[in-house]
Amino acid sequence: MGSGAGRTVWMVRHRARARCYALKVLYGNHDDAVQRQIAREIAIVRTAEHPAVVRCHGMCERGGELQILLEYMDGGSLNGCPIADEPFLAHVI
């Protein structure tokens, strides 16, 4: 689906459920502090329930890579889309 800055995102399919997911792979060795920070962020995202927030299904480490399983969104890339400023977004939530 895309790559850059030490990461690649793959579209993967769960065969039994016939469902697509996005698998984000973060390359390189991550020290314990970085892994804890990422785990905290994922724990926060996992509790978010909003149609505009991509669901996170979990994280694991394999061979020095961090792998994050996310909800697959087929709406295309956000690259080049205008992003609202913080004061505007504060009223959305």
TrEMBL record:
Matches recorded under InterPro entries: Kinase-like_dom_sf (IPR011009), Prot_kinase_dom (IPR000719), Ser_Thr_kinase (IPR053235)
Lineage top rank: taxon: Eukaryota
Residues of the Protein kinase domain: 1-93
Keyword Kinase (UniProt): yes
Family annotation (PROSITE patterns): PROTEIN_KINASE_DOM
One MF term in the entry's GO annotations: protein kinase activity
UniProt keyword list: Kinase, Transferase
The protein's name in its UniProt record: Putative mitogen activated protein kinase
